[in-house]
Amino acid sequence: QKEVEQDPGPLSVPEGAIVSLNCTYSNSAFQYFMWYRQYSRKGPELLMYTYSSGNKEDGRFTAQVDKSSKYISLFIRDSQPSDSATYLCAMSLPGSARQLTFGSGTQLTVLP
Amino acid sequence: GAVVSQHPSWVICKSGTSVKIECRSLDFQATTMFWYRQFPKQSLMLMATSNEGSKATYEQGVEKDKFLINHASLTLSTLTVTSAHPEDSSFYICSARTINRGPGNTIYFGEGSWLTVV
């Protein structure tokens, strides 16, 4: 079993739809949770950063962390074609190294 | 967000030659940089963790003599693929961990470097 599980998709939605992306994980010691967006042939771009449980909102993006269920989500409201990319969840343990453990990524296409 | 620059973005080299990829943190100091490898439609695979002024820590299965990592300053780390072979062709991405910036030492990624070995 992988430490972080993420449905690879692909996921196609119409423009304006609400998108829900999810990851589950097995290591309860993870404390930091991140979502990255990666366009084709580009490096990942940090979208959201959350510490421990709770919700965080930034514009059209909302990140949720439920540590009791070991489940994190990213919601995208009013999705746009420019949101089409691969979305990677990542998490890390507390401590100085802060190496990231990634999900496999979900490929999202928003159709105009 | 913080800016991490990688160079070159694209490189084609002949089998048996060595290739150096640079990773620079442009507007912050990074005591720790990470090197990843990514195959098409797959997630990032951590190769090594690089700490400024010390030897890199390699992940299991990554040949340290083949993938030489140097982190000589707080803003620069280099990855040298030695005696490259076609199976080394991949997308190599670096990331840098900020200190004293952003929400709790965030990690930012470079744009990646495409290596093709022919």
List the helices and strands and how they pair.
The complex is a heterodimer of chains A (112) and B (118).
Chain A: E1 4-6, E2 11-14, E3 19-25, E4 32-38, E5 45-51, E6 54-58, E7 61-66, E8 71-76, E9 85-92, E10 101-102, E11 106-111
Parallel strand pairs in A: 2-11
Antiparallel strand pairs in A: 1-3, 3-8, 4-5, 4-9, 6-7, 7-8, 9-10, 9-11
Chain B: E1 4-7, E2 10-13, E3 19-25, E4 32-38, E5 44-51, E6 57-58, E7 67-73, E8 76-81, E9 90-97, E10 107-109, E11 113-117
Parallel strand pairs in B: 2-11
Antiparallel strand pairs in B: 1-3, 3-8, 4-5, 4-9, 5-6, 7-8, 9-10, 9-11
Provide an overview of this structure:
The complex is a heterodimer of chains A (112) and B (118). In chain A, the strands form two sheets. In chain A, strands 2, 4, 5, 9, 10 and 11 form a six-stranded mixed beta sheet that branches. In chain A, strands 1-3-8-7-6 form a five-stranded antiparallel beta sheet, with no helix packed on it. Chain A has strands spanning 4-6, 11-14, 19-25, 32-38, 45-51, 54-58, 61-66, 71-76, 85-92, 101-102, 106-111. The model of chain A has no long low-confidence stretch (mean pLDDT 91). The termini of chain A are far apart. Chain A is mainly β and 112 residues long. Chain A contains no helices and eleven strands. Chain B is mainly β and 118 residues long. In chain B, 0% of the residues lie in helices and 52% in strands. Chain B contains no helices and eleven strands. In chain B, strands 2, 4, 5, 6, 9, 10 and 11 form a seven-stranded mixed beta sheet that branches. Chain B has a four-stranded antiparallel beta sheet with strand order 1-3-8-7, with no helix packed on it. In chain B, β4 (32-38) and β5 (44-51) form a beta hairpin. Chain B starts with a strand and ends with a strand. The chains are: A mainly beta (112), B mainly beta (118).
